[in-house]
C-alpha cells in the first residue's frame, strides 16, 4: 500500500491553502497513510492547523532554528531523510514546491513528476505539457519513491474538520549545508484576497494602457471583492509588480470567476487560467484569442464598460 508524505507550505506561522490541495491529490492515490511534514523554527501553530485537514493520518514536525525560513538547500536534506519508508513525497507546485522538490528528488535519486493534475493509479499521473496545449500521462517507477509537485489549480482543498490528527516530533540526524543563508524577504502587501486562492480575480493587460490607468482594475476588483492579476505584457510594461502575473511564467490559478480586461489572450496567459470556472473577457478587439475561451465576452472600450458594470452592480 502507498504511504504519502505531504510537505507543508507555510509563511508567517500560517499554513498555505496549497497544502490542503496537495492532500486532496494524495487522497486520490488511495493510500494507506497520508502524513504531513512541517518544518519550521516554531511548529506548534502550523502543525495544529495541518492536523485538522481531513484525511491526514499524522502531522510530523521538525523544529530547528535553521528552518525559520524556507531555504530549499536546508529543507531538502531533512525531507529526504524523513521520507524513508514512504512511497510518495508530494509538494504543492508553487514557488516553494518548485524550489524544494527537485532537490529532494535528487537526494533520493529519482526523477521528479511535475505539475500533477490528476491521478490515474498509484504511480500513473497526468500533467500538462507544451504550455498546457497537451496532457501527457506519466508512469513512475514503482520500485522507487515518487517525488511529485501538485498543480494546485487542478485540485480543490481538502476540508478541515473538527477531528485532529496526532502530532509527532521527529528528531533526525542530518548535516545541513551552510553555503545558503537567508538575507531578507520582500513581498507585496495587500488587503485584497490572495491571488492564488481567491474565488474571484480581475486581471488587466496591455490594453489598460498605463500604470495610472490600472487604477480602474484595482477599483473594480475592490468593488466585487476580487483579487487582482495581470498579463505578462502588463507586468513587462511596468503597470504592476510581477507577483500579480498570471500565466505559464506567473501564477496558475483556478478562481470561480476570472475577468480578463484588456488582455488579448496569449497561450502563455491562457495556461494560467485553464481551470477557472467562468471566464469573462473585455477587449476592444473582437478577434482577440481570449474570446475563444471566454464564457462571456464584451467587445468595447474597457474605460466605458467598466464604469457601466460598476453602476449596474450598484
Provide a descriptive summary of the structure in words.
- Keywords: Electron transport, FAD, Flavoprotein, Transport.
- This is Electron transfer flavoprotein subunit alpha/FixB family protein.
- The protein is α/β, with parallel strands linked by helices and 314 residues long.
- The chain has two domains: 3-169, Rossmann fold (3-Layer(aba) Sandwich), CATH 3.40.50.620; 200-313, TPP-binding domain (Rossmann fold, 3-Layer(aba) Sandwich), CATH 3.40.50.
- The protein has helices spanning 17-28, 44-51, 72-82, 95-108, 215-224, 232-236, 267-272, 290-293, 302-313; strands at residues 3-7, 10-11, 14-15, 33-40, 58-63, 88-92, 112-116, 118-121, 124-129, 134-139, 146-150, 167-169, 200-204, 227-230, 257-261, 278-283, 296-299.
- The strands form four sheets. The chain has a seven-stranded parallel beta sheet, sandwiched between helices.
- Helix 8 (290-293) links the parallel strand 16 (278-283) and strand 17.
- Helix 3 packs across helix 4 and helix 5 packs parallel to helix 9 (302-313).
Placed side by side, the strands forming the largest sheet appear as 7-11-6-1-4-5-12
| Bulk shape | elongated
What number is the mean pLDDT? 94
Quick one: CATH class of the largest domain?
Alpha Beta
**CATH homologous superfamily identity of the largest domain:** HUPs
Number of strands: 17
Give the structural class.
alpha/beta
The overall number of domains is 2
Residue windows where pLDDT falls under 50 for at least 5 positions: none
Amino acid at each position: 500500500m502507498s504511504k504519502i508524505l505531504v510537505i507543508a507550505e507555510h509563511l508567517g506561522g500560517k499554513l498555505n491553502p496549497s497544502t490542503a490541495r496537495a492532500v486532496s491529490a494524495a487522497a486520490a492515490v488511495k493510500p494507506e497513510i497520508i502524513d504531513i511534514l512541517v518544518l519550521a523554527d516554531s511548529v506548534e501553530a502550523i502543525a495544529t492547523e495541518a492536523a485538522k485537514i481531513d484525511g491526514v493520518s499524522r502531522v510530523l514536525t521538525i523544529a530547528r532554528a535553521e528552518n525559520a525560513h524556507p531555504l530549499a538547500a536546508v529543507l531538502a536534506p531533512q525531507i529526504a531523510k524523513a521520507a524513508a519508508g514512504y512511497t510518495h513525497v508530494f509538494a504543492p507546485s508553487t514557488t516553494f514546491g518548485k524550489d524544494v522538490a527537485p532537490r529532494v528528488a535528487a537526494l533520493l535519486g529519482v526523477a521528479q513528476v511535475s505539475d500533477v493534475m490528476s491521478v490515474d493509479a498509484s504511480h500513473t499521473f497526468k500533467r500538462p505539457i507544451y504550455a498546457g496545449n497537451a496532457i501527457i500521462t506519466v508512469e513512475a517507477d514503482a520500485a522507487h519513491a515518487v517525488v511529485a509537485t501538485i498543480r494546485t489549480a487542478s485540485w480543490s482543498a481538502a476540508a478541515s474538520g473538527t477531528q485532529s490528527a496526532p502530532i509527532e516530533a521527529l528528531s533526525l540526524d542530518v548535516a545541513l549545508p551552510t553555503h545558503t543563508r537567508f538575507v531578507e524577504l520582500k513581498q507585496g502587501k495587500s488587503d485584497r484576497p490572495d491571488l492564488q486562492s481567491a474565488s474571484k480575480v480581475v486581471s488587466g493587460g496591455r490594453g489598460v494602457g498605463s500604470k495610472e490607468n490600472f487604477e480602474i482594475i484595482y477599483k473594480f476588483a475592490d468593488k466585487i471583492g476580487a483579487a487582482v492579476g495581470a498579463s505578462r505584457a502588463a507586468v513587462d510594461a511596468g503597470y504592476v509588480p510581477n507577483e500579480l502575473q498570471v500565466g505559464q511564467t506567473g501564477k496558475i490559478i483556478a478562481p470561480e470567476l476570472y475577468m480578463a480586461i484588456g488582455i488579448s489572450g496569449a497561450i502563455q496567459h491562457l495556461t494560467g487560467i485553464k481551470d477557472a470556472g467562468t471566464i469573462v473577457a473585455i477587449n476592444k478587439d473582437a478577434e482577440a484569442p481570449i474570446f475563444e475561451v471566454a464564457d462571456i465576452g464584451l467587445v468595447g472600450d474597457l474605460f466605458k464598460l467598466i464604469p457601466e458594470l460598476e453602476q449596474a452592480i450598484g
